[in-house]
Amino acid sequence: MPNFVDFSGRPFHFIGIGGIGMSALAYVIAKRQLPVYGSDLRSSHITQRLQEIGARIFWQQDPSNLKSFGSDIGHSSENFVSVGDKGNCRESRIGKESPLASPNQRKNSTAVLPQVICSTAINPTNPEYKAALDLGCPVFHRSDLLAALIEEYQSIAVAGTHGKTTTSSMIGYMLLQAGKDPTIVVGGEVNAWKGNARLGHGPYLVAEADESDGTLAKLSAYIGVVTNIELDHPDHYENLDQVVDIFKVFKESCTKLVGCIDSPAVRDKLKPDISYSLKPGSSAQYTVDRVAYRSDGTTARVWDRGEILGQLSVSLLGEHNLSNALAAVAVGRELGLDFKTIASNIATFEGTRRRFEIAGEFNDIMFVDDYAHHPSEIRATLSSARIYAGAKGTSLARRVVAIFQPHRYSRTQAFLPEFAESFEEADVAVVTDIYSAGEKRIPNINGERLAKEIADNHHPEVHYQPSLESLSEFLKKNLAPGDLALFLGAGNVNKIVPDVMAFHQQAAPSSTTCPQA
Q1: Over 80: is that where the pLDDT of 97 sits?
Q2: Is residue 49 exposed (0-12), middle (13-18) or buried (19+ Cβ within 10 Å)?
Q3: pTM for this one?
Q4: Distance between CA atoms of 31 and 243, rounded to whole angstroms?
Q5: CA–CA dist 425, 15 (Å, integer)
Q6: Quick one: DSSP state of residue 316?
Q7: Is the dihedral of CA 268, 270, 276, 278 positive or negative?
Q8: Is residue 503 exposed (0-12), middle (13-18) or buried (19+ Cβ within 10 Å)?
Q9: Spatial CB neighbours of 469, under 8 Å, sequence gap ≥ 6
Q10: Roughly what angle, to the nearest 10 degrees, separates helices 164-177 and 319-334?
Q11: Longest pairwise C-alpha distance within the chain
């Protein structure tokens, strides 16, 4: 079995192709005109985008998906789906003359088995995964494919417990606007390239580098970025020291490391080659002063080792996004961009989906969707919400209603006290039950317990709703004009947003604004 990824024409098959990380890799591979197959349990706008560029997708995870490769790469089972008119899906059979098979592959198709790509989310008992092993397919973790792509470019890999999606997307956008035509693989969707990935023809690849399962240690980039280090995945790491060890390996594999020394673990354990900080008196190479946080964004003056570079404007809210932008400044300067170009490009970056994404405004209620699921992220996002809504106690301030779906039993258990203290900036906290992400239940760890802990932390108003259905009904009855409704979580809590918005649209006394794109 080969121990390297083959980009010469051998097909790729992604188990769980619709995942945010898997789909980004599949997109880049398909755009390189390589044969891409995959399986998932349901269609989405992400899988439809892949189908539009030639990917062939099975709608079940079954051994037969792979057995078809053994007989003829051009054949498929009845479960293949192609894109029909206007993006609707229809079942089809891909015959021997499939456009995914080159002439040589058609001649030698019986000898070609796909390279199978899977993620940590795929259980070893998965029947399709087991079939791949039984058939002798080369099987790779998605991090192996990402590592292989990173080695083909002058790559920038952005890691960190928080902020890596926004920071990597911002760096990718900065290089795109600067005419560098980068390849981009990130864990969020960005309007500028209409998804979570793009294939460029320039020398740079910008990638989000995930530490959650330890595979960060496989990546070797020209520039590594570490935004911060905290314990966030107690299902994989026992303590912070284990997390730090993975980042140390990552540092040693990168030619240069850019790091935020406002994070004690980054400052003390990694000692980055190029540092940045929001604290003017720090020893960092890049710092800021004259910072102004406003409801329409943030401005600051940027310094490089005592030299004023100029004014930086960021349309995203909060100090965490100013820190992300400072990381982009450091990377841009390292790649030879002048500060004026860097600043003008960062100023027009609109962010990624589910990062303080305004979903719409109806009945004078602002609906915001955010991926925050760790106590530090919740604090940062609520701080941004408070800036946007106005200071507490002022006559024009909006009421901030934080609607939180905890993510994973292990995380909720490990950070229960920290979660309880994370909602101070909210006027109202509404908690639903835990999104398990496949974990087994832990006794006495649930959404009701967390709601009680938040209430015991002297929060004035906390409500528990056990299901998304009851949560939706609660919000229809209790949200009021002037509220900022902030949906928080990495699970599926945002699925109820359209229904709640539609209700309040009907409840509005007059016409209201349309949802923002």
Answers
A1: no
A2: buried
A3: 0.82
A4: 34
A5: 41
A6: S
A7: negative
A8: middle
A9: none
A10: 50
A11: 75
